[in-house]
Design goal:
By secondary structure, this protein is α/β, with parallel strands linked by helices. 36% of the residues lie in helices and 23% in strands. The strands form two sheets. Strands 7-6-5-8-9-12-11 form a seven-stranded mixed beta sheet, sandwiched between helices. Strands 1, 2, 3, 4 and 10 form a five-stranded antiparallel beta sheet that branches. The longest helix has 17 residues.
Length: 302
Amino acid sequence: MSQINLMRCYLCDSYKLTRSPNQRAINYDGSIYSFFNCNKCGSHSLFPKLNGDSIAKLYSMEYSEISDELHEDESISYISKFTELRDYILADAKSGRKSYLDYGCGFNPVTLGIASSMGLDSQGVEFSSDVVAQANLIFPGRVTTLEEFKKASKVFDYIFMGDVIEHLSDPIAVLNEISTRLSSHGVLIAQGPLQGAFTFTQMLVGIKSRLFSSKTSSFPPYHVSLASRKGMQEVLKAGQLELIHFEISEPQWPAPSLSSVLRKPTIRGVGILAPKLIDRAISKFIPKYGTHYFLVAQKRAK
């Protein structure tokens, strides 16, 4: 059996994969990685799967600092990324839920502050020990390593995964584990990119990738899956979770703000912003159009 026949979609577990012409191959850590499109759910998965050493190298403090810079906009504070999370917890205040975990909180775990300000007992978990150490400087003793988390048995009323699922090579296994760490009335709240969605910007990215398909990318493979809406629904189902709320929107990021481009116009800035503005306009009229999801799920009834 060929290697490609052993590959399975990270999100829906389907074998129906074909190499994606819309994503360039990636040269990272001495190996070449390629995205494969799933003909069942429309998502993309990266193969070969990253090994432990490569994952550890990716998600060190260096990545966290780069990620923080990429998500920061001159006109929008970092904390605004979590408006949907804050609004949901505020609206859910009468539910009696009291404990909160940020799974993949990063070195600047601002959601712990949000949860704490609402009276929740909040904790965080991170993959890299150096990121954990930095996060504990901000919230002493509140962030643990993944290994420590797995050894514990505490359950939580809220578990948040913010921009995490797209980094997981085995999200089904992780979500299965997460489902066991939810309390009987607990909920998973997750948000992240839908890079497998069809939008004007994504179409242009695909065209560019096809034009430069002979050149490998040197940008590290931080996102190992590019999810579609169906892919996210499938991965929750496989992870023993039942979807109870799902929103799609079109964020400004990663395009710069209009004000920053007007202040200091560049060809690159205009080139990124223009299609993003078109997508944001389209999203006002077409439901479920966009590249950002926010969802809430609960444990599936036995």
